[in-house]
Design a protein that fits this description.
The complex is a heterodimer of chains A (159) and B (177). Chain A is mostly helical and 159 residues long. In chain A, 73% of the residues lie in helices and 0% in strands. Chain A is built from 7 helices and no strands. Chain A has helices at 3-20, 31-44, 57-76, 85-88, 96-122, 125-153, 155-158. By secondary structure, chain B is mostly helical. Chain B has 2 domains: 2-63; 68-176, PhyR, sigma-like (SL) domain (Butyryl-CoA Dehydrogenase, subunit A, domain 3), CATH 1.20.140. Chain B contains 12 helices and no strands. The radius of gyration of chain B is 18 Å and the shape is globular. Classes of the chains: A mainly alpha (159), B mainly alpha (177). At the A-B interface, helix 1, helix 2, helix 6 and helix 7 of A face helix 1, helix 2, helix 7, helix 8 and helix 9 of B.
């Protein structure tokens, strides 16, 4: 062990002695009351406003089933390009208005899908690569700007 | 009763790591709320203190998480000489000599209360990058490897930050004498 390492070890021991010779921090005397108050407030929160893992088991089950059913419905009712609503959903008279609105929405989505297809098809590979390169350059530029700012502002204080 | 037995330990750990009374209070409350959720298992356990200590460290480090991510990211951008060199070779012999002198003077020349206040003040003045590994090493008795894992940085970086922290602490103590 050279002199400098021996000095570093002495420094470690000295700092250890100084730090551990200091009286420990004491918690505020009313801290347990604050915790009890939070526990009490937590107990008064109705179950539906708590996190899902804290819900009653039947509610969790229903929540899961609803999620699965919603996902399944979205997959089944996705905007088919040439489908009309009539082929997807039977609609009695009371549902005519909302069904018509939904029909319009589905048509709009299908039209948007076709527009996107046409747009993607019309652009050359060069344009795509250019756009990607531009995004990458912008990202790298921002990253280094942020890094520079961090080093100028934050790092000197940490030394 | 359970809480009164452990609240000082939990608060002290959180306070030393975060450097803030208010944050340490929040973290202590969170720790005991978690303990309340697991109370049935916890009161049977001999190592309840260890469990509380682990949760306190985790919550305190999570609180400092945003800073830790930046620290890790940008420490990797530093030149190799700053981030990965042997920390013992970084500090010069006169620097360490001066630090040893100021630590000796604080150990012998002051009353307990004044010394405590000065050490706490000096510790609070350290930046998180130095205070956190220093506290983990000296108070929580974690090894360099464990601290590197806790903070997700290299062991060399931990050693460097701890050495810088010790020197800075000595300087702050000296400045206060």
């Amino acid at each position: 062990m050279d002199d400098q390492s021996a000095q570093a070890t002495a420094l470690e021991q000295r700092v250890n002695r100084v730090l551990n010779g200091t009286a420990a921090f004491k918690a505020p005397p009313d801290l347990h009351l604050q915790v009890l108050a939070r526990i009490e407030r937590g107990a008064q929160v109705p179950w539906w406003r708590r996190r899902v893992p804290e819900w009653p088991r039947p509610a969790q089950l229903l929540f899961g089933l609803t999620g699965v059913a919603t996902a399944a419905a979205l997959v089944l009712l996705r905007p088919a390009r040439h489908a009309t609503l009539g082929t997807v959903l039977p609609h009695p008279a009371v549902l005519q208005r909302p069904a018509a609105d939904l029909h319009t929405t589905l048509n709009l989505l299908a039209a948007f899908d076709r527009l996107l297809d046409a747009l993607v098809g019309s652009l050359s590979n060069g344009v795509w690569y250019g756009a990607l390169a531009l995004c990458a350059a912008g990202y790298v530029g921002l990253f280094f700007l942020f890094a520079l700012g961090y080093r100028l502002i934050q790092t000197p204080a940490a030394r | 009763m359970f809480m009164r037995d452990y609240q000082d330990m939990v608060f002290a750990s959180a306070r030393r790591l975060t450097g803030s009374d208010a944050t340490a209070q929040d973290i202590t409350q969170d720790v005991f709320l978690k303990a309340w959720e697991h109370f049935a298992n916890l009161r049977e356990r001999v190592g309840a203190g260890g469990w509380l200590k682990t949760v306190t460290l985790r919550l305190s480090l999570n609180h400092l998480g945003r800073y830790r991510r930046r620290w890790r990211l940008f420490s990797e951008l530093l030149p190799a000489g700053e981030a990965g060199s042997d920390p013992d070779q970084e500090a010069t012999a006169p620097e360490i000599e001066a630090a040893l002198g100021s630590l000796d003077s604080i150990s012998t020349g002051l009353e307990h209360a004044e010394r405590d206040a000065r050490v706490r003040g000096a510790l609070s003045q350290l930046p998180d990058a130095q205070r956190v590994p220093l506290v983990l090493f000296h108070f929580e008795e974690r090894s360099y490897q464990q601290i590197a894992q806790d903070l997700d940085v290299s062991v060399a970086k931990v050693k460097t930050d701890i050495l810088r922290g010790r020197l800075a602490l000595a300087k702050h103590l000296q400045a206060g004498v």
